[in-house]
Amino acid sequence: MSHPTPLYADLVAFAATRHRIVINLSGGKDGPVAGLIAMDAARQAGVADRVWTAHASLGPMEWPAVTVDGVRWPSASELAAQHSQALGVPPERHIEVRRSREVGGERVPFDLLTFIAERGDWPWLGRARTCTGPWKTKMVYQAFTPQVRALRKETDGPLMFANMLGMRAEESPDRRNREMWRRTTDNSARVVDERLPAHLVSTEEVWERTIIAGLPYHWCYDSHPGAKDRRGSSRCSCSACTLANHRDLLLMAGRRPRLAELCALVERVRQVPFNPNITMAELIALSRRRNAPDPGVVVEETEDFERMERDVHAALCKPPTWDSKARTGPGELLHSAAGCDGCH
């Protein structure tokens, strides 16, 4: 699908100078639309074979797959791979990365909520956004390091990368003020320019392009899986985003009650509210009222979630690693037998 406009006229010339064009896909609605624009520019520049897609997985914090009436609706990670194929990128040029760490001599998943529980602080707006750079951008950059090393043997000077993101101005004041083009890395190995191809695309146009292009979209956007009414969550990817709007958070609490309760436990033990304006405990209570949005479906959590749950409990048995200025009280460490088995 081609959408040539004067706004993106320079994108073709820009794409022609890149050794790698990386389209970031979260499994949400905005990434594939930004990808349509980026792929169109790459094809016009004759460099479509340089396009890769990347998904930085947040593991159990992402919206998972659900099965309703015998129909399975894919997870955010699965949908990111489907979006990549829909854009025309071969499967071997789609990468998924996920943060891990070494425990007992082996690499194991390291989840965002476990990190938050250990640190004892939530990533609010205007404070350290610990949920973005280390968990997404850095992971994607690391994944391309082997390619940088290989390509540098064939190229004079640094490798030129384009990092294409689906951020849009309509989403928030912070994103509205974000530059559509900025250089984020400049060294002897690589130069990375960040571009926001869909920055000025409206939400209405995002859905129009999605439907016209026949792109699949995540079940969480609907009132219930398969409804096709886009009356569910307004945003995808991380289920329990501290920056999500009130209705989205109420839907999360209804759709993923175990995740909401786990967030509330972190909040209670660390004495730092989930959000500066409302606590997770309050959100859970509000989600149970008659006037709360109907969740439409309740997620059956996976073994991966249960592993994260154990890791969070273990983290809460120990003092926080960060002295949060948002802490409202001293808090009490978790000492229940179920929660702290083996961590005394």
Structure description:
This protein has 344 residues and is of the alpha/beta class. Helix content is 35%, strand content 14%. It has twelve helices and ten strands. The chain has helices at 9-16, 30-45, 76-86, 112-119, 133-143, 145-152, 173-176, 203-213, 246-255, 257-270, 280-287, 303-315; strands at residues 20-24, 51-57, 66-68, 71-73, 94-98, 100-103, 106-109, 159-164, 181-186, 190-195. The strands form three sheets. It has a six-stranded mixed sheet with strand order 5-2-1-8-10-9, sandwiched between helices. Helix 4 runs parallel beside helix 12 (303-315). The chain is globular.
Summary of the model, kept short:
This protein is an alpha/beta fold and 344 residues long. It has 12 helices and 10 strands.
Our estimate of the beta-strand percent is: 5-15%
Structural class: alpha/beta
Q: How would you describe the shape?
A: globular
The order of strands across the largest sheet is 5-2-1-8-10-9
* Largest sheet: number of strands, sense, barrel closure: 6 strands, mixed
What's the average pLDDT?
92
Give me the number of helical elements: 12
Radius of gyration, whole Å: 21 Å
Number of extended strands: 10
**Percent in helix:** 25-40%
Q: Helix-strand pattern, N to C?
A: HEHEEEHEEEHHHEHEEHHHHH
Oligomer: single chain
pLDDT < 50 runs, ≥5 residues: 1-7
How far is the N terminus from the C terminus?
58 Å
